[in-house]
User: Fold this.
Amino acid sequence: MASSKPLKASELLAARKRAVFRFVGLQVALAAGISVGIFFALSGLHAYSFFAGALASILPNLYMAWRVFGHAGTRAAKDVVRSFYRGESGKLVLTAILLSAVFIFIKPLVPGAVLAGFGVAVLSHWLSPLLLNK
Assistant:
């Protein structure tokens, strides 16, 4: 039997950081793949509308990941909690700004495709346990 030693805090943090950024990469790949399918099935207008909506959800996730895991090494629990709160509040504000910007500045646009892209990106969080537990 092989004995498995518990991971050090820095090793555990590095593993979680890789998993979280791998998940954000998966979100981008999923959104891009679906957008390509929509391009061929419907139109380019629907495809970029879908992708813009997805990015309005994915970019704030990237911000949150950077906010929480952007620091090198381990930190005090109080600093970690503060990073989570700042990251989450920034993520909510950034999501509202990006989704609004998509509807205001991107013309022409298919609103249903934007919301579908946003929804798929949000629902892709259901896939996170598959990646974050590794």
User: Anything to note?
Assistant: Helices lie at 9-41, 44-69, 77-105, 111-123, 128-132.
